[in-house]
Design brief:
By secondary structure, the chain is an alpha+beta fold. 31% of the residues lie in helices and 24% in strands. Helix 2 packs parallel to helix 3.
């Protein structure tokens, strides 16, 4: 099954990759690796999910934000490769969550991204990861996801 067929089966649509909002590249290829800059939770209508989880946003808002951010990762990956079937492996996902100091469920929220990547890429989606809770993120985004893929 191709990645496109798998995405369709999962009911997922890859959005157009957002352009960078600063002086950096959305992705960099180095050898057989694609480093994707931090992707924010921008929904299909172009609206950023912003706010602090545990204060302005609840857990379910964090799940939705994570899903949009990882779909934007896939948008950048498609832009970088032209074909998601070229992916050999998801190497790493790093999640940064804008949350209150007593919020403890960031690993569960990052599972939304990990599960989506595993479902889309199957064994090629197995990856290392790290997750952090932070006091703020650019543009007051709820989450930022940084990734590395092998092609």
């Amino acid at each position: 099954m191709t990645i496109e067929e798998n995405l369709k089966k999962l009911g997922l649509e890859i959005p157009k990759a957002p352009d960078p909002v600063g002086n950096y590249k959305a992705y960099i290829k180095s050898g057989n690796l694609v480093f994707i800059s931090g992707q924010l939770p921008i929904n299909p209508n172009g609206k950023l999910i912003e706010g602090k989880i545990g204060l302005d946003l609840d857990y379910q808002d964090g799940e939705i934000a994570t899903k949009f951010a990882i779909l934007n990762v896939l948008g950048q990956l498609l832009r970088a490769t032209g074909d998601l079937n070229l992916i050999k492996k998801c190497v790493k996902i790093v999640g940064y969550y804008n949350c209150t100091e007593n919020f403890k469920d960031h690993p569960k929220l990052l599972n939304v991204a990990s599960d989506l990547i595993a479902n889309v890429f199957k064994q090629k989606g197995e990856h290392a990861r790290a997750v952090l809770g932070v006091s703020s993120l650019p543009l007051n985004a709820a989450v930022e996801l940084e990734t590395i893929f092998e092609i």
